[in-house]
Predict the 3D structure of the following.
Amino acid sequence: MPTVWLDDHASFGEWRDKARQLLLAGYPPDTIHWLGPGATAGLLEDGGRQLYLPPVGATAATVPPGYIDLAEAAICHADGERFALLYRLLWRLQEDRGLLGARSDPDVQRLERMAAAVRRDAHKMKAFVRFKSVVDPTGRERFAAWFEPEHHILERVAPFFARRFTGMNWAIVTPSRTVFWDGSDLTYGPGGQRSDVPADDALEDTWRTYFSSIFNPARLKVQAMKSEMPVRYWRNLPEARLIPTLIESASRKVREMIHHPATEPPVRHQRQVRRQAEATAEAESEITSLAAARAAIQGCRRCPLFEFATQAVFGEGPKSAEVMFVGEQPGDQEDLAGKPFVGPAGKVFDAALEKSGIDRRRTYVTNAVKHFKFVPRGKRRLHQKPNGGEIAACRFWLDLEREFVKPKLVVALGATAVQSLLGRAATISSLRGKPLELDDGTLFLATIHPSYLLRIREREGRMREERAFEADLAVIREIMDGGYRVA
Ligand code: URA
């Protein structure tokens, strides 16, 4: 039986070109072998005789929607049968356009299982890759990570890391291939070994501190935890070393939590975050302007949120602004755009400002926390509230913004901003409508976060809250116009 050899493990384009040629030449699926790189043809009767076919144009085969998506994922599967399965389905789809809807068909089931396994593996890689910091001989900081995927997913997932860590030079080493990012291009090289990546660095402490602070023993179910963080990845994760100790102390901790509900992050965590922040602050003491702070924040490692966000989102607005609005943290759209309040909450904010006669371009708009905190859910990234440690760590940047902009008034939009600006938690209802004077003489006002309005379903309640928000903005407008005095 003739053999089709493929040069790449997971190139859908290469497989598709060959499949088109075969289809046009009329080769039924059971008349050919497919072999990927590194495969041995030893057991084949003819030793894997290469099949040569003339190239064909792009219109040789048509497929229903859905097939390409599934096939692009399934081609990355480690199962050597994947190429043949995809061709068999392609062949059958020419006769039966509705085949993919036949859920009980063994080929369709296998395709779906393979695609799902690849997507799971890709998801794990996005979640569990941990970069280590490496200083190269020229003194430049680079990052390297070791990862062992189950399937051939490196090319599929690498663009995700390029988008997330655009500003860094990094490499991800796997047993079969290595991908490099130099800030503009992804390139691939041979695979490596775990020992190619440094075993320890300062980032690991950050991860361990972070993980132990978010570890919630009350939710501990070893089984559930394993599925969230499968054992095979534990070796790569600095925080995983804590797991046995944390599990051991979990039942004691649960009892303690029941008797002493925690309202503050653990003291040990606060201390470590503070120590780390102090060390970073020393390096950052060079920052002498708003522009320098804007540039420096992209290297911020004060808390682990930088690992997952696309970029830090610094404030925006004129240096001469008299009013500074402080939100919580960038959302999904802000994270991608690199600008604060441009997503759904930003639209509500803009509309309310306009209604109140406040020109956003005359104000400085920023957030208490500069990196987007989220959990991935399928293709979506769900917002997570920043914790006390993250708010405290990011206060450094907000303080710099306040120092360089020197606004007459800072407005906290929501509870996170209140906690950052006052250094303590307080409800909006207890502060609302009562401007305070901060230690440095700046006026402080608290109001709701605009996203609160998006969450109110009931029309009347929402309109009431909109009016209250506009009343707060009217006070701000008065302060901007110079007509308001603190009693
Ligand atoms: N929510 C915020 O708090 N800030 C933003 O920038 C966007 C949404």
Summary: The chain has a mean pLDDT of 84. The longest helix spans residues 106-128. The CA atoms of residues 386 and 428 lie 17 Å apart. Residues 327-331, 334, 340-341, 343, 345-346, 367, 451 surround uracil (CB under 6 Å).
